[in-house]
Amino acid sequence: MQRIAIVQGQHAIADDPDTIITTLLGSCIAVCLHDAEAKLGGMNHFLLGEPEPQHRVRPEDRHRYGLHAMELLINAMMQKGAARHRLRAHVFGGANVVPAFGKIGTANGEFALRFLGTEGIAIGHCALGGILPRKVEFRPWDGTVHTSTIEERFAPPPRPSAAPQVQMQGSDMPDEYSHGDVELFR
C-alpha cells in the first residue's frame, strides 16, 4: 500500500487501488473528493477558509486558504478525468484545539460546507468540530475514508534516579576547587 501524506497547503489525487492519502488536522480542514465512475479521488489540507475582505493575500500565501485549495483540487481532479457533477465530498477537521485561537476551526468548517454547497458538490461523510485533532486516511480509488481523533497523551514523568557519583581525589583537583566553593562567570 502506497501512502501519500499531505500537510497544510498541499493536495494529492490518485486513481490507484493501492494508494491511501493521509493527513493530520487540528483546526485545519481536509476535503476529500471522489468520482465513483472515474475511480479517482483527491484530498486537500488548508489552514484558513478565506481571507478577510480587506486582507491582500500575497501569491506565495494563497496555498493557506481553502478558497484556493478547493479550486486546485477540483481542477486537478477534472484534468485526470473526473466530472464535476459526479463529485462527492467528505469533510474533516475544524477542531477548536487551542482555546486562545478562538473558534477558527468552526469558521474553517463553515467555510468548507458553504463552498461545497455553492458549488453543488454533494457531501457524504462529515466530521467537523470538537477539541481533538484528527487523523484522516482516504482511499481515492473507492472513496472510503477512515478518521479517528487523536487524544493528547503525555509521556510519563521520568523516574527519579540517583545522581551520578563522580569520584575525585583531593590531590587531583586544582586548589581553587578544593574548598567546595563555586564561582560562575568571573
Automatic annotation (TrEMBL):
<comment type="similarity">
    <text>Belongs to the CheD family.</text>
</comment>
<dbReference type="InterPro" id="IPR005659">
    <property type="entry name" value="Chemorcpt_Glu_NH3ase_CheD"/>
</dbReference>
<dbReference type="InterPro" id="IPR011324">
    <property type="entry name" value="Cytotoxic_necrot_fac-like_cat"/>
</dbReference>
<dbReference type="Pfam" id="PF03975">
    <property type="entry name" value="CheD"/>
</dbReference>
<protein>
    <recommendedName>
        <fullName>Probable chemoreceptor glutamine deamidase CheD</fullName>
        <ecNumber>3.5.1.44</ecNumber>
    </recommendedName>
</protein>
<keyword id="KW-0378">Hydrolase</keyword>
<dbReference type="GO" id="GO:0006935">
    <property type="term" value="P:chemotaxis"/>
</dbReference>
<feature type="region of interest" description="Disordered">
    <location>
        <begin position="149"/>
        <end position="186"/>
    </location>
</feature>
<feature type="compositionally biased region" description="Basic and acidic residues">
    <location>
        <begin position="176"/>
        <end position="186"/>
    </location>
</feature>
<dbReference type="InterPro" id="IPR038592">
    <property type="entry name" value="CheD-like_sf"/>
</dbReference>
<dbReference type="GO" id="GO:0050568">
    <property type="term" value="F:protein-glutamine glutaminase activity"/>
</dbReference>
<keyword id="KW-0145">Chemotaxis</keyword>
<comment type="function">
    <text>Probably deamidates glutamine residues to glutamate on methyl-accepting chemotaxis receptors (MCPs), playing an important role in chemotaxis.</text>
</comment>
